[in-house]
Request: fold
Amino acid sequence: DNKLGALRYTICRPIWRVFVKEQIKSAIDLGTEGMFFDDVYNTPNSMFPFNSQPATFDSVTMATFRQYLKNKFSVTELKNEFEINDINTFHFGEWIFAHHMENTWNQGYLTGLSSEYYTFLLLEERKAFDEIGTFAHDYARNVHGRDFVIGAGIREAQVFHLLDKFDFSQNESFTFDAVNPFAYTDIKAMKAVKDWPVGMIPEPTKPGLPETTKNMIKLIVADIYASGGYMVFGEKLTEGIASLEHPPISIDFEILARY
Reply:
């Protein structure tokens, strides 16, 4: 059930983490100096309706979530706060339907069990990348005597919980987006958490923008540079978004060099 038609594992599943570590090991053995993970915020945010990859209620994730709740709450608290009578048979997806919350459980400001589920996913993602990063760094140093760099593609505040798990990051900014229209908020927020150089990939998402524009490039570059970031791009903006509504915008490199 995803756009690429590819198999995907829950991040809670040990076999997925073993697979990733095996790929990193092979890459290090071949001489690779680093690895970059894109969209690292997708695991927790998959529960929200704006994400194309739907939330997962698979058996492995549910079992891990049950253990999280067992460790955090007493039997009495589970019953009084969440109406969970038997944590050993609890299934969050079934709980949502039983409480008639299938259209509201992941909307707006999260409360109750939905908030706990989101927190659980954040913590699981931290554990997974901690395991993966530790393995990669240790293997490269102990076996090959060299450093290995772990990087991540991020988006705004959705990845602050992971910044200490990576050696560097690169930020995507949806320029002219109605929610977060420019890059400066991302750059300032990122530098407030960790003072890394902030590379920005500006991706204009508003429909109907001109495919060639000098003034827009001036505006985007000025916004990024004045805020303390730097621009990362291909030959065009939004090359990564395959959409007829948002055609790639050509970059005038003469204008870019001047600004």
Notes: The CA atoms of residues 9 and 180 lie 31 Å apart. DSSP finds nine helices and seven strands in the chain. The longest helix spans residues 112-144.
